[in-house]
């Protein structure tokens, strides 16, 4: 009997739900482990507090003397909460977060010690960063990277460590992380959106982008997961036969949550409360053992940090519940994958959601302005948007026949489609008073204030308008949201800048009234960007054909999708906005294609190992049992044995056949890897991994999965799909 799998099965079947202590009210513990405004008021002097708030609200610099005061206050607060260490918490380009812990503790030289944490430690740190990917930036400039405090995301305590959210830059100021470009894109967007918002309300002085992510994930029993080297090392199953029952019955979705999973969620939510992550909804997803969790939306930078922190906390809490969280976009073949919908909107410092329809025609014109500009930005940059979510793991969703597809389109619903169709007919030039009144009354004024309850909602569009926000759904469940958010912010910023220039020009040159000018520019945008709008729900071949006719890109695989990131047009856009320079952009592209190759390389190795070390030996063992059986039959029946052994003989042959194919596949795959590794150019290498190495995965897997159903269940060493998905 295969020990590991059966031990794991026994363990998983004997598990009792882990008890969770709940606070009386969640609000009581919300933000308790965060150095938030309340804590700052208590631990900082008035000057220090004001300087932090100024930095948060207006991006002003914090001077060194005050930094010393702030760090002292922060340290006292942290120690009062039981912290012993501090770390600069940052987002290197590996996609996860990094920390280097230092103790507050320092000796004073006379044999005693104190707890120390000066302004220098708060504002700047030099982690030993040589092993983080940097795409050559640091070699070109200076071999050091620095982390520096980002006051717009508050410090928090995790375990006994004070975590200080920081940016990570090279000595010469190039971004080595995801946060710096995100912050710059938010600044660009704020500038552009504020200018446009002023057409409608002079009092607006700041626009924040907001993000509410929805995190999908799978939970698998920890022991079962540990019995699978592919889950341990690649976070997805590289082989495994589909279970007899999958998700066809749809009985998991919004069904009752199993107790073990529920207790995990309850503890997780308590941890989130302490950390100030405003999680709000939880439910089952479509696939068995698949779940989703979503917070109340926040300002983008904070929301991104909270999502990264959440993923970290999920791993830790799951351990206590003997579960493993799978964030991978496609952990199981043939079962729905996981995404991370990014709900995105714009909100003014006067409290208005710029993508929310309003109660008056003027407010609705404001809504339409931001709505149409976003659609236009996505249309003009659809390939770039696609590139922002490209990764080896997300290819399994976007490239496969699973929604959302690799083609970016925008869904807006029939009501808004009708409104845009009307606006397309607006007269060129100045509008007659009659037409304007008519428009305001019958088109703009007719957009209902509440589109949210609109039943005509599409669940699978990659980029959908959902009442008062856009929902970027093609983002992968493992992704750091910074990357797609940076690109979305940047292209909308650029678009709004252009819009402002065009409207102002009509006002100045053509002496148009402001709203005439706005109508005129919007009309052109609506016409120009029409091709990106797609209201259909099916994404098969018909849509691919149609999209091709429309000139939309359909980059199914990552190396192809990433190309546009280093195109001159893209670099120009980012340079103009001050979001990234050429060096930073090219470095990122380099890192991303390299990461792709490594990803495929690792998966290939794991698959080869499992197939050769687990699948083939097990199959041979079973084949030997059959051979013995056949020999026994021959002993009893003599020449007549074939009558009784024909099935066994055919299984013996089938096994040999599959083994041969697997072995051949692995040998050829290794060869293809060797060839790929010889390629110097990182992009070319990624293409080789994609086109020459990856195709072997399916081939090898196919034969392994066939063996899984041939071989005696008692012998099979790897936890099966039905066990992982239904236990
Ligand atoms: P669903 O998409 O399942 O219908 P909801 O409409 O309730 O769910 O919202 C999903 C996510 O959208 C939540 O995280 C919510 O906080 C977020 N959201 C709602 N309004 C905004 C907004 N103005 N900006 C950004 N995110 C938002
Ligand atoms: Mg959603």
Automatic annotation (TrEMBL):
<dbReference type="InterPro" id="IPR052725">
    <property type="entry name" value="GS_Type-3"/>
</dbReference>
<feature type="domain" description="GS beta-grasp">
    <location>
        <begin position="84"/>
        <end position="173"/>
    </location>
</feature>
<dbReference type="InterPro" id="IPR040577">
    <property type="entry name" value="Gln-synt_C"/>
</dbReference>
<dbReference type="Pfam" id="PF12437">
    <property type="entry name" value="GSIII_N"/>
</dbReference>
<dbReference type="InterPro" id="IPR008146">
    <property type="entry name" value="Gln_synth_cat_dom"/>
</dbReference>
<dbReference type="Pfam" id="PF18318">
    <property type="entry name" value="Gln-synt_C-ter"/>
</dbReference>
<dbReference type="InterPro" id="IPR022147">
    <property type="entry name" value="GSIII_N"/>
</dbReference>
<feature type="domain" description="GS catalytic">
    <location>
        <begin position="178"/>
        <end position="615"/>
    </location>
</feature>
<dbReference type="InterPro" id="IPR027303">
    <property type="entry name" value="Gln_synth_gly_rich_site"/>
</dbReference>
<protein>
    <submittedName>
        <fullName>Glutamine synthetase III</fullName>
    </submittedName>
</protein>
<dbReference type="Pfam" id="PF00120">
    <property type="entry name" value="Gln-synt_C"/>
</dbReference>
<dbReference type="InterPro" id="IPR008147">
    <property type="entry name" value="Gln_synt_N"/>
</dbReference>
<comment type="similarity">
    <text>Belongs to the glutamine synthetase family.</text>
</comment>
